[in-house]
């Protein structure tokens, strides 16, 4: 029976489907499919009996997609165009648990602290007023000396030359050398301890050159740089507390000796306190902390420091009323590590948050413990 289609034409669609299967499997019965497929559609494929078996199935899929695909795309478009239902999100109000304290009245005082060091009150350099060679001098650092004690001898250059020539002079003429050029004795100017030695026996000393540095350790100065705004407060205190920062020793209460007349560029002056040191256990250069109290502020408004919130150099607190927070700007006075004096901003007995202050905001509902 002759096939109703032209078998000489090449396949137009689905020609690459399973060529291996076409060589091993027999051609499908196209008569059954022809009832389902219209002749117009079957013209899209040629030789369905002798070519690949998948070609007929491909035509079937093509017709199926042509009918279903438009419906599928239309469904997607309609679904996408539908308005999104509004979901109402219910936010639960969470109340914050905080600790509070009342603003109260009490006495408070401040403590002014400055740092300083020990310094020599009396010191001197032993120098020669004449040029010559230093002899009979034997000192080391730490040696104790007494005022007026012989330190050494300066031999002028002319006398040194005469002494060299005296080897050829008779003993009767040698006493005349002392009248021509004499040696110059050196004496310690103060009683104290040798701090520095610059010259030794045999060295040639120029006029005015330093030989040895001597300091009196029996009385020392405690010196500190005091800001001028605390001058009157320090005057009224009279006795200041001195604490050693790098030396184990009980605190000392020392009287003020004097203030320097000149004010430095950073608006401060040097304060001097007298420290008796008979046992010589203190040394110049030891670091100290000098403290003195300010006048007592009686019945001042106080609150815990943990209630403060600092923002750009200004202080705020949160008061609690009817379970809600209110932010207040405050002016502070004396500030300690535990309590703060309040000049303005809150009143006595007001309830303030002393916990989680930095996490609070205005008009926030809270639960107080």
Beta-strand portion reads 35-45%
The major pleated sheet works out as: 6 strands, antiparallel
Poorly predicted segments: 1-52
Structural class from helices and strands? alpha+beta
Rg measurement, Å = 53 Å
**Proportion of helical residues:** 10-25%
Number of helices, where a helix is a run of at least 4 consecutive DSSP H or I residues:
7
Order of helices and strands: HHHHEEEEEEEHHEEEEHEEEEEEEEEEE
Tally of strands: 22
Distance between the termini: 102 Å
Overall outline: elongated
pLDDT average, as an integer?
Answer: 80
Instruction: Classify the oligomer.
Output: single chain
Summary keywords:
369 residues, six-stranded antiparallel β-barrel, 22 strands, 18% helix
Concise structural overview:
It contains seven helices and 22 strands. The protein has 369 residues and is α+β, with helices and mostly antiparallel strands.
Protein architecture, described:
Strands 3-16-20-19-18-17 form a 6-stranded antiparallel β-sheet, with no helix packed on it. Strands 4-11-14-13-12-15 form a 6-stranded antiparallel beta barrel. Strands 8-7-5-10 form a 4-stranded antiparallel β-sheet. It is elongated, with a radius of gyration of 53 Å. It contains 7 helices and 22 strands. Strand 12 and strand 13 form a beta hairpin. It is α+β, with helices and mostly antiparallel strands and 369 residues long. 18% of the residues lie in helices and 39% in strands.
